[in-house]
Amino acid sequence: MPGWRIGNLGDRLFRGIAATFATIIVVVLLVIAVALTQASRETLSAYGFGFVVGQDWNPVEGANEVYGALPFVWGTLVTSFLALALAVPISVGIAVFIAELAPEWIRTPTGFVVELLAAVPSVIYGLWGFFVLRPVLIEHVDPALSRWLGFLPFFRGAPLGNDVLLASVVLAIMILPTISSVSREILRAVPNTLREAALALGATKWEMIRSVVLPYAKSGLTGAVILGLGRALGETMAVTMLVGNKPSMSLSVFEPAATMASIIANQYPEAQGRQHSALTEIGLLLFALTLVLNILARLLVWRVGRLPGDAGRA
Amino acid sequence: MEADDDKRYKVRAIDLHAWFGTSHSLKGITMDLVDRHVTAIIGPSGCGKSTFIRCLNRMHEVVSGARAEGTVLLDGENIYASGIDAVLVRRRVGMVFQKPNPFPTMTIRDNVLAGLKLNGLRTRDPDALVERCLRQSALWEEVKEQLHKSGASLSGGQQQRLCIARTLALEPEVILMDEPCSALDPIATAKIEELIHELRGKYTIAIVTHSMQQAARVSDFTAFFYLGELIEYGDTDSIFTKPSNPRTEDYLTGRFG
User: Fold this and answer.
1) Does the complex come out with an ipTM higher than 0.90?
2) What is the pLDDT of residues B21-33, one digit of tens each?
3) Which residues of A touch B117 (CB under 8 A)?
4) What is the CATH number of domain B9-98+173-252?
5) What's the whole-model pTM score?
6) Does A213 touch chain B (CB under 8 A)?
7) With contact defined as beta carbons under 8 Å apart, do A170 and A125 qualify?
8) Is the dihedral of CA A203, A204, A205, A208 positive or negative?
9) Is A199 within 8 Å of chain B by CB?
């Protein structure tokens, strides 16, 4: 058999090349982390953990120069979670509709249109938010909210337009396709035998979805939501255009804010020295935050994939 | 006479047709299920036997593209009449599936009570109901110490008996079984068959099976389906000893199928 040795070599070569490619991903991640850490060395050593909880940000060189990331962490978390609160019910609703309720011929087009939302560039969302959504919010939504719910700290103050609410609504629309398409796949993975079991017990479709399908899909859906959160945390362009870019830590959605991504986008081009280091450290924080969340999401999605039927066989 | 027949026959299918998309898989079945007896339905794969029993609790139409036409009388009332809610039909006509399908997110106890919960029904003493149903399905002794474990933690045969207990909890009048033993080993199969023996006399049972021995062991009546038609139907003894249709005989003797 003269050929087998060559075949074996080819296999080994192929495996080596594929392994190299796979390793590159890990290396790139590490290089990013190391580069960010190095470039933020100055503020890392100057402030330590105080950087994360520091509330003041004054990049003017001199005695008053100080850097704290908390307002940006706050802005990022508030806009992201508000976006989630708006987007999750809608996207799970869309996913349930497509996976469980819609007639066959409508499923694919609906899914396609929702996924199309993901293809719209971020800057377009920013423009649309500014020119279309902002006037609508100022004219109709903001006055109603402050009139009826103005007694809550969340709706206090005078709506100015570029604020947390506007950024969050646009963010919600942007993360909708992510959450709904992942949720749809999760729902599709729910075994049909369980749906039939519920229906055969005299469940209505709604009872079947609520008591059997959603509980089965729960951890996978959580994963979908976290993937959406990951997108929202890192979103830069649209948020920078809409959020107002004023580092503040107000509870009110009518206040402008700044996010980790928006402060970097705004100040990086002119930053020098310590400010450069501070901005890079914010980048490092954001990187760590999204990384942790994505790993969490993967674990959850993986868990739902291997949950039930297998447990019986094991 | 008619009224007598309605009493004797719990379920009466009259000229029942079913389709999957354009394929006509049930071609005018007229057949009655005798009240509180076991009827076995046999026939080669694709003969429409599963489709037939899925039409009896309106589960056939759940599959997209599937539809059924004809009349099925349950206690003399047509379940395909307009204005009849399929959900209510399924509460009266329970079903056990080929693959055991307990709800993995629920405990054993909650699986038994699932039918009640799904329907928003209350019971005064759920624990007693759980015990009664699990005893009826001959599972109680094996699981009484672990009612709060997941339904998926049981063996295949236990899961299937749990599914039967779950069906019994709704106190159905008819129980449809779609090859309930085909995924089980011989010992688990024997237990299910024993259970079917226990349940006859209380419930009207229709069981689809690939195993002719099983049909002979558990049923009072046997129907032979072939290519979507009912070829022969009669009491089990005569079907197996002196079938009147040559195709039935060919199938029973293993010449095809």
Assistant:
1) yes
2) 899 999 999 999 9
3) 211
4) 3.40.50.300
5) 0.84
6) no
7) yes
8) negative
9) yes
